[in-house]
Structures are given as C-alpha cells and as structure tokens.
C-alpha cells in the first residue's frame, strides 16, 4: 500500500477549482435562462396585435406593437440582448473547461453591464407605456385603452415579465463573474 500525503495547499486548490467550475456551470445556466426570458419577451411583444371587432369604412381599430416607438425600442433591445446572450454561451462553456480564464471574464462583465443598461432602458420605456395603457392619465385626457384591447395589453404586460427576469439574471451574471474573478 502506498500512502501519500496531501499538503494543505493542494487540497484548498482542488476545492477552489471545484467551486469555480460550479460557478461556471451556474453562469451557463443563467445565460440560457436569460436568453429564454429575453427571447420570450421579443416573441410576446412582436406578436402583440389586436383588432377590434367593429370598424368603420375609413377607420380600422387595431393595436400593434410597432404603432408605439417605445415598444419598437423594447423589441430591438431585447433582440440585441438575445443575440449577445447566444454569442456569450460558447465563452461560458469555455469557462467551464478552462477555469483560470480571466480576461474573458472581465470582457463578459463589461458586456453584461452594457446589455443590462440596454435591457433596463428598453423595459423601463415599455413599462411606462404599459402603465399608461392600463391606467391612462386623466390630467392629459389620455384614456385607458386596455378596456378595449385586452389581449394586446395582456401580451405587452406579459412580455415585460420576461424582460425584467432577464434583467435580474444579468445582474446575477455580473455578480457571479466578479466572484469567479476574485477566487482566481
């Protein structure tokens, strides 16, 4: 029987590598979840369309997402975020394989922060419009349109859930990358 001794430093390095691999796997899972949330927001808002059952010969009563610039911006920003998250998944897989990669983690923190700003601005602009659609503004005589366009309002409000979820996951991704860098 061969007896080997493990030094205290070797055991702690193995433990740190195991934790870093766990952080990298969790990073990959969060990126996929954020991608799904942002993609769901794009699909839900992009397909938000409702026509009222009555119309006149000259006027059609229809609500579409591209009628409102804030909703267009929301869809574009979420689509850009989806593209970024899809492109960052291979880098996240690289971090699982190569735990000590530092420069790519710094790059991901930087790009994640930029995407967080984008998705926050788009979701905030859309949330303001959804709020006005649901409640209106009596001081400016803007009436609530959600009494007539219920399906459109439900889809647009539902798309905000996915976007705010992706936003929260991006915050977690930034924190996880910072933790992984500090453990190197």
UniProtKB/TrEMBL annotation:
Main location: membrane
InterPro entries: CASP/CASPL, CASP_dom, CASPL
Mode of membrane association: Multi-pass membrane protein
GO cellular component assignments: plasma membrane
Membrane-crossing segments per the record: 28-48, 73-94, 106-133, 160-181
Cited Pfam families: CASP_dom
Domain Casparian strip membrane protein: 21-168
Keyword entries, A-Z: Cell membrane, Membrane, Transmembrane, Transmembrane helix
Location(s), subcellular: Cell membrane
Subunit record text: Homodimer and heterodimers.
Family: Belongs to the Casparian strip membrane proteins (CASP) family.
Protein name: CASP-like protein
Organism: Nicotiana attenuata (Coyote tobacco)
């Amino acid at each position: 029987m061969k007896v080997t001794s493990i030094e205290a430093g070797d055991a702690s390095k193995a433990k740190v590598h195991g934790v870093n691999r766990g952080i990298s796997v969790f990073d990959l899972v969060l990126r996929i979840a954020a991608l799904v949330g942002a993609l769901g927001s794009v699909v839900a808002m992009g397909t938000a369309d409702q026509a009222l059952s009555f119309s006149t010969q000259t006027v059609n009563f229809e609500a579409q997402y591209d009628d409102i610039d804030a909703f267009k911006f929301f869809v574009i920003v979420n689509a850009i975020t989806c593209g970024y998250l899809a492109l960052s998944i291979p880098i996240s897989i690289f971090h699982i394989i190569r735990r000590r990669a530092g420069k790519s983690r710094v790059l991901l923190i930087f790009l994640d922060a930029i995407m967080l700003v984008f998705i926050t601005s788009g979701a905030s602009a859309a949330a303001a419009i959804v709020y006005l659609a649901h409640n209106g503004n009596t001081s400016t005589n803007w009436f609530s349109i959600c009494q007539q366009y219920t399906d459109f309002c439900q889809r647009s409000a539902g798309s905000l859930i996915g976007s705010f979820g992706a936003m929260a996951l991006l915050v977690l991704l930034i924190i996880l990358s910072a933790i992984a860098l500090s453990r190197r």
